[in-house]
Write a structure and sequence with these properties.
single chain; 404 residues; alpha+beta; five-stranded parallel sheet; 14 helices; 34% helix
Length: 404
C-alpha cells in the first residue's frame, strides 16, 4: 500500500463530485477525483437516455418547496447555485437548452453525453486527476482504496465525499460508505427508496396490458393530488405520476386514481345514468364512460363488484382504489432518501466528526421529486462543498502561519 498526499480529494465522480472538483480547481488547488466505476457519471448518463432534465424553470420559492423538510437546510445552497445557475452552467459547456411546457429544462441534444464530455475536457485542461476503478474500502489513517494497481492509501489535506445514495448499485451508488461513516460516529438516517414504482398483485386479466400507459389521470395519495401518467407493468405501476406521489405512498397513504380529471362528477354521473337498465357493466363502461383497453381492464380489475347506482359508479371512476403491495426494491429506485443526517454536518457541509471532510449530493439526507430537482440539488451541494472546502483549507493554512 502506498501513501499519497494530494491537496484535495473528491471521492465519487458523479455530478456532485465533479462540481465540487470544479470549484476546488477554480481555487487553484491540486485535485484528485476517485471513481469506483470504469467511467464517471454513469447515473447521469443513464438519466440522459430518456432526455436529460437538468432543472426546472420556476420561481425559487416554488422550487425550494419541493424539498420538503430539507428546504431550509438547502436554501442557501440553492440560492447560490439554483435553476438559473444550472442553465448558465450547461450553456457554458456548449449546450443549447430549451424549456418545455411543464417548465422542465433540457439540452437541445436531450442527452447527457455531450455536456459531460465538454465538462470533463474543461476539468482536465485545468489539471483534474481522475482515477477510475478506485473503490473506497475503508477510512482510517487516510482513505483506503482497492485499485487496478493494488491497495492505495490517500492522505489529502481536504476531502469531499460524493458517492451517491443507495440505488442503482450497478451504476456506482451502492451505499457501501454508510458503514464506514457509522464506524466514525457520523450520524446517519436509514436509506429509503424515493421516486420509485410500486408492486401490485395483478390477476391474469391484466397480462395483455403490461406496458400500457395510463394518460391524463390524477393520482391521489392521501392529501396529495398529482396530474400525470403511469405505466402498467408486469409487477405493478411505474412512471412520472407514480414517482411524484411515491413519498406519500411510501409513508402509508392509499393510492386512488381519477380516470376523468377533466370531467366533473355531476357530468359523469349523468352520462352513466342515461344508459339502459339491465345493460352489462362492461357495455356501460365502454359506451357511457368511453373506457377501453388498459383503462377498462384496470376498472374491471380494481372495482369489482361494480356498484349499480350511477352516482356511486361515477365516484368510483374518479377515485379508483389501487391495492399496492409494496414499493419496488430500493436498488431500482431513481433516488433514495436517508444518508448523512443534517445534524452530522455544519453549515459548510463539513462532517462534525471528521474535520476537513465534507459531503455532497445524494449522500446527504434529502429527497425531491423528479423534474430537475434531483440534479440541481446535487450540483448545488457539490458547488457549496467545493467552495467551502477550499476556504477551509485556506483558513487552516492561515492558522498554521499565525501559529508560527
Amino acid at each position: 500500500m502506498t501513501a499519497d498526499a494530494p491537496v484535495a480529494l473528491v471521492i465519487g465522480a458523479g455530478p456532485a463530485g465533479l462540481m465540487a472538483a470544479d470549484q476546488l480547481l477554480r481555487s487553484g488547488l491540486q485535485v484528485v477525483v476517485t471513481e469506483a466505476k470504469p467511467s464517471p457519471a454513469r447515473k447521469l448518463l443513464m438519466a440522459g437516455k430518456s432526455g436529460l432534465n437538468i432543472t426546472k424553470d420556476e420561481a425559487l420559492e416554488s422550487f425550494l418547496a419541493q424539498y420538503g423538510e430539507a428546504e431550509a437546510w438547502l436554501y442557501p445552497m440553492l440560492r447560490d447555485f439554483g435553476p438559473d445557475q444550472v442553465k448558465l452552467w450547461a450553456q457554458d459547456h456548449g449546450q443549447e437548452i430549451f424549456t418545455g411546457s411543464s417548465g422542465r429544462v433540457f439540452p437541445i441534444s436531450m442527452k447527457a453525453s455531450p455536456l459531460l464530455r465538454n465538462w470533463l475536457s474543461d476539468l482536465r485542461s485545468r489539471g483534474l486527476d481522475l482515477r477510475t476503478r478506485w473503490r473506497l474500502i475503508g477510512i482510517g489513517d487516510g482513505f483506503h482504496f482497492d485499485t487496478p494497481v493494488g491497495a492505495q492509501n490517500l492522505r489529502p489535506k481536504v476531502t469531499i465525499l460524493a458517492m451517491g445514495g443507495a440505488s442503482w448499485a450497478r451504476l456506482g451508488s451502492d451505499g457501501a460508505w454508510a458503514g464506514m461513516l457509522a464506524a466514525r460516529d457520523v450520524p446517519l438516517t436509514p436509506f429509503q427508496p424515493a421516486n420509485m414504482g410500486f408492486l401490485v398483485d395483478w390477476s391474469s386479466h391484466m397480462t395483455p396490458h403490461f406496458g400500457a400507459p395510463l394518460k391524463s389521470i390524477t393520482l391521489i395519495a392521501g392529501a396529495q393530488q398529482q396530474r400525470g401518467e403511469a405505466v402498467i407493468t408486469n409487477r405493478g405501476l411505474e412512471g412520472g405520476g407514480i414517482y411524484a406521489v411515491s413519498r406519500a405512498l411510501r409513508d402509508g397513504a392509499p393510492l386512488t386514481l381519477d380516470l376523468f380529471p377533466d370531467l366533473p362528477l355531476e357530468a359523469l354521473t349523468k352520462r352513466l345514468a342515461q344508459r339502459p337498465k339491465g345493460e352489462s357493466t362492461v357495455n356501460t363502461l365502454k359506451k357511457a364512460a368511453k373506457l377501453s383497453g388498459a383503462r377498462l381492464a384496470l376498472v374491471l380489475e380494481c372495482a369489482r363488484p361494480f356498484p349499480v347506482d350511477a352516482l356511486a359508479r361515477a365516484k368510483l371512476l374518479k377515485n379508483l382504489p389501487i391495492s399496492l403491495k409494496s414499493a419496488c426494491p430500493m436498488d431500482e429506485a431513481i433516488s433514495t432518501a436517508g444518508g448523512i443526517a443534517g445534524a452530522a454536518l455544519d453549515d459548510t457541509l463539513m462532517l462534525k466528526a471528521m474535520p476537513g471532510v465534507f459531503a455532497a449530493g445524494e449522500m446527504l439526507d434529502w429527497e425531491a421529486p423528479t423534474g430537475g430537482y434531483l440534479l440541481t440539488a446535487c450540483l448545488a451541494t457539490g458547488h457549496w462543498a467545493g467552495n467551502a472546502a477550499a476556504h477551509w483549507l485556506g483558513d487552516a493554512g492561515q492558522d498554521k502561519s499565525a501559529a508560527n
